[in-house]
Amino acid sequence: MTEILQKTERAYEGDHDRPLAGYVGLLGAYGGTVGVAAIAALLAGRRAPEQVGVLDVLLMAACTHKVSRRLAKDPVTSPLRAPFTRYEGQGGPSEVQEKPRNALGELLACPFCLAQWVATGYAAGLVLAPRVTRLVGATMTAVAISDWLQLAYAKLMKSAEE
Q: pLDDT above 70 covers what percent of the chain?
C-alpha cells in the first residue's frame, strides 16, 4: 500500500511537493472525528435537528469565520502552529503569515481549510450541547463584528487625518 501511495504521489506532484500521505492522514482524522461525534451523539441519545434555522446558520458562519481565522492567523495561537509552520512575517491587521512545513501545517495555517473542521465541530456541538455551542457561537460572532468595527474605525480615523 505504501508503494502505491508513493508512486501515486510522485506521478501527481511532478515538479511540485505535495504531501499526499499527510493529506490521507488528515482525511482519516477528519472522518474518524466525525465518526466519534456521531457515536457520542448516538450514545447520548441525541439526534440531529430536523432543520437548522437561518439564525443558527448565520451564527455558525460568523463563528466559523472568526475561529478559523483566529486559529490560522492570530499571533497568540502561533505556538499551536509553530511545530508545523515557519514564520514569514506580518500578515493582515493583527495577523501573521506562515509557510507550512507539512500537510498539518497547511491545514493549520489556512483559515479556508480549517473552516470545515470548525463548522463540523460547531454542528456536532449543536447536536451534543446546543446551548453552550450557541453561547460560544454568539461570543465569537461578537468578536468578528468587533473586528470589523475596529477596522472601520481605523479607516475613518485615517480618512480624517488626510
A: 94
All residues at 6 or more sequence positions from 24 whose CB lies less than 8 Å from its CB, including other chains: 5
What are 91-106's pLDDT values in tens digits?
Answer: 888 899 999 999 999 9
Query: Measured in Å, how far apart are the chain's first and last C-alpha atoms?
Result: 64
Q: Decide if 141 contacts 66 (C-beta within 8 A).
A: yes
Coil/strand/helix, residue 47: coil
Give the tens place of pLDDT for each residue, 117-135. Answer: 999 999 999 999 999 999 9
Containing structural domain, residue 146:
2-161
- Residue 96's DSSP bridge partners are 90
Q: Are 95 and 75 in contact (CB under 8 A)?
A: yes
Three-state SS at 123: helix
Using an 8 Å Cβ cutoff, are 159 and 151 in contact?
no
State how many domains the chain has. 1
Whole-structure pTM value: 0.83
Cell of 91: 500578515
